Amino acid sequence: MIVRIKRYLFLYFRNLPYLPIRLVLLVDYLFLLLAFAAGFLIIYPPVPDAQLLRSVAIYGVPFLLILVGFMNWKKSFKGVIRHTTLQEVIQLTFIHFGSFLCFLPVYVILSNLPGVEPLGIAAFVLCTALSYSFLMAYRLLVKQLFWNNKIRRTRQMHVLLYGAGEIGISVYQLLLKDFGTRYINHGFIDDDPKKTGKYLMGVKIHSSGEALLHLMDTYPIEELIICTGQLLPAQLEAVYEACYARNVRVKRTPDLRYWKEGQFNVSDIQQIKMEELLGRESIDIDQGHLSGEFDGEVVLVTGAGGSIGSELCRQLAKYPLGKLVLLDQSESALYDIQQELRSIFPDLQIVPVLGDIKRKRLLRAVFRRETPKLVFHAAAYKHVPMLENYPLQAIENNVLGTRNLADLSLLHGVHKFIMVSTDKAVNPSNVMGATKRVAEKYVQSLSQQRGATQFITTRFGNVLGSNGSVIPLFRRQIEQGGPITVTHRDMVRYFMTIPEACRLVMEACKMGHGGEIFVFDMGKPVNIYELAEKMIVMAGKTPNVDMHVTITGLREGEKMYEELHSDLEYALPTHHPKIHIVSSEKADASWLASEIRGLEGLCRKEADEIALVRQLKVLVPEFISKASRFSTLDRTSAVVKG
């Protein structure tokens, strides 16, 4: 029977959301009486006489009433015992110290009353101290029992925290309170040699480097949480590589502002982003000097709903523009960026235009009505395998659409026309790259003509997170359980972030005077196969054990590696060490215009794809198809030349 009652009480209190207030109040009063009785039993004889008992009652009643009054005033019994914090400790301290001070004048008055045997103040000091100790111990014991009960029912996670500063301390405190997982911290890692060897919250602080490797080799570490924002990209990559080799996930705490706003919890500790593992420092440009470039200007952005175009709009909208015209053929994408900008920049005049750059009549009306002075041309078809199958659409959009915009810009006196190009235009191996190279050539050719418009081109590699890029594809494949598909084990690509790409475009607008092609120093290229393996590790799985990486073979038109400029081009420095100008031979403007008209004629006739691609190869002699059915054109050309 007793066992059943004990089991019932255990289950009742274990599943009880919170202790009832009346129960907490009753326990507090019982501990108060216990402390009072214990204090006098310690000070006075075990068998007091009647006079002493009378004095104890005379002194004790006001003493207890004052203490109870303070407890009810501060409502100490309404706190959630399991979540006792420093605030509750301070509150109990105030209650006991304040009540004792209030009791002192009462004690003096009672001590001078006739017929009352004086009691020593030491007894009341001891009663106050015992009451404080009992109530505090009771709260801490309940808190500890609660957490122990919770922890026993959850899984374990072995971690290391990189950063022994304030953020590291806060993260560890947060992990200790997590209901879902019992986190076991095997050490803090910190680059400050003054901290090495010391202890923080009972956990030893280790240096990075060999000590980090030793900890991961000694303990079953599952996660390393970066709790500092001071790691350089090279340091971050080295840490990640060490973790990657041991299948340890790397996570990072969010921006410091979340801590200040009190919105941070364990779920906000996210996997490290691939953008942070480019192996180079972020290309940062002080853009304070750009304000005069855009003040009061009417700016047209094509492809405004795309990944590059939308970010360009966000950055441009920060300046005091006269008007921002958004052009895109995707209704949903255009609506989304329009609504976003209007909510953030309510005073900015925003004009959405739903239209296709292939429709010159529509573009002509837009230029007449809105009179843009700056044009950022980000609209393009860019997916290599798709365009390899649809060369007609690639030519119409990337070549003829660009020509429409460039011609109208020249006709309507646009100050600057900035075109967004790609490294796939360098020694192109596919239809997409070839069409972008033709567009580059045409834009450059217009800069040789007399007119007010300055034509500028920006060229960069793969953009992390852009629509159709490899990282979102890998994420989707991981979410679906794999496998991850890679076309070749040795394929490499240059990567940059969307903000970096847009900063280049805007900086080129300021720096350019017409005819330039601007490129970034993008660091070292990234191996795509290794990138896939890293993303699998980041997802908490082991590559080719839990999830496989499958080699599918090169797709049509795909290169093993990309280049930022060809052998016929060379890079010239600018005022920024990470930005270069590519110098290349300009095509003859009249010849180029004539050949593009020939290409346009083939499009109007809807000529077969062989004829279209053959004409592209005339316009871009360095266009050599790779892993494509159009490679026969290169072999035929070689035979004819031979």
Short description:
This protein has 642 residues and is an alpha/beta fold. It has a nine-stranded mixed sheet with strand order 10-9-8-11-12-13-18-22-21, sandwiched between helices. It has a seven-stranded mixed sheet with strand order 3-4-2-1-5-6-7. The chain has a two-stranded parallel sheet with strand order 14-17. The termini are far apart.
Could you name the key traits of this structure?
642 residues; alpha/beta; Rossmann fold; nine-stranded mixed beta sheet; seven-stranded mixed beta sheet; 22 helices; 15% strand
Secondary-structure map with pairings?
Elements: H1 2-14, H2 21-43, H3 50-74, H4 86-111, H5 121-152, E1 155-162, H6 166-176, E2 181-189, E3 199-200, E4 203-206, H7 210-218, E5 223-226, H8 233-245, E6 249-252, H9 256-260, E7 270-271, H10 291-294, E8 298-302, H11 307-316, E9 323-328, H12 331-344, E10 350-354, H13 360-370, E11 374-377, H14 384-389, H15 391-411, E12 416-422, H16 431-446, E13 454-460, E14 462-464, H17 470-479, E15 484-486, E16 492-493, E17 495-497, H18 498-511, E18 517-520, E19 526-527, H19 528-538, E20 549-551, E21 570-573, E22 579-583, H20 589-604, H21 609-619, H22 631-641
Parallel strand pairs: 1-2, 1-5, 2-4, 5-6, 8-9, 8-11, 9-10, 11-12, 12-13, 13-18, 14-17, 15-20
Antiparallel strand pairs: 3-4, 6-7, 16-19, 18-22, 21-22
